[in-house]
Each structure stands twice: as structure tokens, then as C-alpha cells.
Specification:
- This protein has 313 residues and is of the alpha/beta class.
- The protein has helices at residues 14-24, 43-56, 80-83, 105-115, 130-138, 168-172, 174-181, 192-195, 202-209, 215-234, 244-251, 298-309; strands at 4-10, 29-36, 64-66, 121-125, 146-152, 187-190, 199-200, 239-240, 256-261, 263-265, 276-278, 290-296.
- The chain contains twelve helices and twelve strands.
- The strands form three sheets. It has an eight-stranded mixed beta sheet, with helices on both faces. It has a two-stranded antiparallel sheet with strand order 7-8.
- α2 (43-56) links the parallel β2 and β3 (64-66).
- It is globular and about 55 Å long.
- The two termini are 23 Å apart.
- The structure holds alpha-D-ribofuranose and calcium ion (CA).
- Residues 11, 13, 16, 40, 126-127, 243 line the site of calcium ion.
């Protein structure tokens, strides 16, 4: 019996890839499906990348669905400057042979949540929240059936990474993010304040490269490429592994620390569009609607990642 039944919503993305690989390598996770969304790169690439990652993990039976090709209201912003033209630059991975599911991703999310017992399915969100927003608009009843939404996104004291105020996932589709944060489902938000502590240093990347399987060296090549942006922008010792923090929090929340506070999403001002306004010190009477994570045991996180990825082909 699996401990966690999840759907991963994602815009791969090298860091998304490691999150998906961690989930596929975890026996305590039942991955019901992967839903691709436009984000780091356009949808035709994110859905192919999701399938490439499943085949790298030796899991071609995984169900992958394509979702929104653009945000609910705004035009699509992509991040080839971080992830490369393909969105998964680094290793050369073969074109996928496994099929793309026919069903529209938001419909798969609705069908899964309505057919599973309430409170048993977790949504692990690694990209812009467009698919979740669309599902909530089409079938509002899913909100009370979601066990938890664990989303990588936003920033508090860390500010933004795509504008001074906003983090990429939220910035791409702030309206969808607002719908999610107002839907009433339990939410764990993993912002840049946490993920910037998950730096893939040279030493950590070499541990992946030294693995005797296919996955380790491929992951090292992904991170060799992925780190350029953050090293140049932040002068950090490597790229932050944002998205694997979502799956790691699901598996080992004790590796993290945070607080239940109110989070609102800026959707009016172009200057601060997509900012996550986190009431960390509870200076307003706005109701807490998310568990916001800021602390991370980085060594424990990388130990978990390394141990689990070793079990893949
Ligand atoms: O800001 C970081 C987030 O945006 C990560 O999920 C990364 O994959 C991109 O989607
Ligand atoms: Ca992502």
C-alpha cells in the first residue's frame, strides 16, 4: 500500500526532471499521472520532456498528459535562458516512444480527484499553476477533495527570480495562482527562500556523475547546464534544486521548517505582478492559507536524492 498517491504537474525543466525521478524512485509514492504545462518552455516541449524523463527512469508505463499551452489570462513567458532551447538541455535523451495520453490534463486532474476517496490525492506542482486553476474553475468541488497541494513557487525575503518581486512559476500565471491560494485546499508553498538553500554544488553533482547507472550521469549533465544562470546571477556555488524540494517535503517534511501564514498573489500592478505577499509576521488579520517553508536540511535533502536516484536504471 503506497503512503502517497500523487499527481505531478510540471514544466520540465532540469529541476522538474529530478523531482520526477525522485518520485519514480520512491516506493512509498503512487504516481497516478504527470500533467505537463507550458512554463520553462512551450507545452509541446514540456510534455515530450516529461516522457523522456519517465523513459530515462525505466517507467514508460507512466501516464503523461498535456495541459494548458498558455496561462489563463496573460501571454506565456518562458525560461529558455535558464533551461536551454529544449527545456532539458544537457544530456542527449532519445525521443520518447511511450504514448502521450489523449485526455486534457485538467480533465485528468478532475477525474482523478472525483474518483478517488476525498483527501487521498496530493497535487505536487512544479510549474505555473494553470492546469490546477483550470481544473478548479471547471469543477470547483475538487477543492475539498484535494489532500494537499505542495507547490514550488513564490518568494518572501528572497524576492523574485524573474522580476525583482516575482518568482517564475507564480509570475507566469498569477491569476491561476490566486485561484489556487483562495480555493481552501491545504497548501504547502516551497518558495525561493527554501529552494535557494538546495544548491547543487560541484561536489554534489560529481556524486551523481559517479553513479554506475544511466540516471546519475544524465542528471549530472542536466545540472552542468542548469547551474549557469544562478551562478552568474547570484554568484552561488551552483544551481538551486527548486522542484525536488516538493517531493522531498512530501516524503520527509521533517527535513524542512515553516509556518502557517497568509499568502496573497499580486494580480493588479505590473510592477509587482505575481508577487507572493507572505504575511510571515501575521501583521494582518488575513487567515493563514498556506504552510510556507523556509528552512531546509540541505545535506539530508541531497542524501535522500542520491540514495533514491541510485535505485533507478
Ligand atoms: O523559479 C523556479 C521554478 O521555475 C522552477 O519550478 C523551475 O523549474 C521553473 O519552473
Ligand atoms: Ca518547474
Amino acid at each position: 500500500m503506497h503512503k502517497h498517491s500523487i499527481i505531478i504537474d510540471t514544466d520540465p525543466g532540469q529541476d522538474d526532471a529530478l523531482a520526477i525521478l525522485l518520485a519514480l524512485a520512491s516506493a512509498d509514492i503512487e504516481l497516478l499521472g504527470i500533467t505537463a504545462v507550458a512554463g520553462n518552455v512551450p507545452l509541446p516541449l514540456t510534455e515530450v520532456n516529461a516522457r523522456k524523463i519517465c523513459e530515462l527512469a525505466g517507467r514508460p508505463e507512466t501516464k503523461v498528459f498535456a495541459g494548458a499551452s498558455r496561462p489563463m489570462l496573460r501571454s506565456l513567458i518562458t525560461a529558455e535562458h535558464v533551461h536551454g532551447k529544449t527545456g532539458l538541455d544537457g544530456p542527449i535523451l532519445p525521443e520518447p516512444k511511450m504514448p502521450l495520453q489523449k485526455q486534457f490534463a485538467p480533465d485528468f486532474i478532475i477525474e482523478t480527484l472525483m474518483s478517488h476517496p476525498a483527501g487521498t490525492v496530493t497535487l505536487c506542482c512544479l510549474g505555473p499553476l494553470t492546469n490546477i486553476g483550470l481544473a478548479l474553475v471547471k469543477e470547483p468541488r475538487i477543492a475539498s477533495r484535494i489532500k494537499r497541494i505542495i507547490a514550488m513557487g513564490g518568494g518572501w525575503s528572497e524576492g523574485g527570480n524573474i522580476t525583482p518581486a516575482a518568482e517564475f512559476n507564480i509570475y507566469v500565471d498569477p491569476q491561476a495562482a490566486r485561484l489556487v491560494f483562495q480555493c481552501g485546499a491545504p497548501i504547502t508553498l516551497i518558495p525561493l527562500d527554501c529552494t535557494h538553500k538546495a544548491i547543487a554544488t560541484r561536489q554534489r553533482i560529481e556524486k551523481f556523475r559517479a553513479m554506475k547507472n544511466k540516471t546519475g550521469p544524465a542528471v549530472a549533465e542536466m545540472l552542468d547546464f542548469f547551474e549557469r544562470f544562478d551562478i552568474e546571477k547570484y554568484g552561488s556555488e551552483g544551481g538551486p534544486l527548486h522542484d525536488p524540494c516538493v517531493v522531498a517535503w512530501l516524503l520527509h517534511p521533517e527535513m524542512f521548517s515553516g509556518k502557517d501564514v497568509n499568502v496573497e498573489i499580486e494580480c493588479e500592478s505590473e510592477l509587482t505582478m505575481g508577487q507572493t505577499v507572505v504575511d510571515w509576521w501575521r501583521v494582518t488579520n488575513r487567515k493563514p492559507n498556506a504552510h510556507v517553508v523556509r528552512g531546509l536540511d540541505a545535506d539530508g535533502f541531497y542524501k535522500l536524492l542520491t540514495q533514491r536516484l541510485l535505485t533507478l536504471p
